[in-house]
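Sequence only, no structure available. Ideas?
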Amino acid sequence: MAGVALLLILAAVLLALAVRDFRRSTSGSNTKGEGSPFEELPAAAVSLGLPDRLRRAGREGRVSPRSVLAAKALTGAAGLMFGLTMAPLISGRLAPVVIAATALAGFFAPDVMLEKAARRRHRRMITSLPDALDLLSVSVATGRTLGAGFIELGLSGRGPLAEELGMAGEDMAWGSGQAVALESLRRRINGKEIASFCASLERSRKLGSPLADQLRRQSAGLRQDQRRAIEEEAARAAPKIQLVIALVLVPSVLLLIVAGLVANSDALLGAGL
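Reply:
I predicted one. Tokens follow.
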């Protein structure tokens, strides 16, 4: 009983801290704005990597790290309360493990959601990269600079990739330099596709090679890789479908046949006699 009381007190404390942090974050957003660069980040948010996770998920400037900390405290308290309600239904030895597991699962649930959003956003950027390269090659072929092409893609395009390219173009326009802007773009968007894209741009700048041709070749290579990935995924799906058929459909059909035979067993036996 003492252990349960302590856990209840801990859940209440977590809930109170979550409400306090949430009120602070909402009041601070009215004065400074969500995700403002002048906002002082809590040490816990920095140690948990929340700013980087929010940036990769595309929520930077929309959701503050304080709000995520408050959500983590709320979900952790909710998981703890759920574990406490389930503890009486479980044997005594497993009850503390279940309580701790539900509390940790609730605490890390916002991180899982942010990671899912980050992976989904990254897939969207990689999928739209060949089209962006084609548009950029046309822009460069007309005599525009790389920064101007990036800014045009950011203004006319949609999606996270257009936003990132527009940000890189603004960095170039404000004097950051192409190398610095591309390195920042490569850090913001992980993956070999973006790294190869930035390397091609830097190689063209240093060697003076035609950039439009390189962009078109890279776009064709990316489309071929995406087509190959889709074909491989379809090939992996065929055995899974066959497994479902073998484990689900075939036994169900056999059960129907057996049920029909059992239901008409009298008639079949009478006809045999």
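The first helix runs from residue 2 to 31.
Hope that gets you unstuck.
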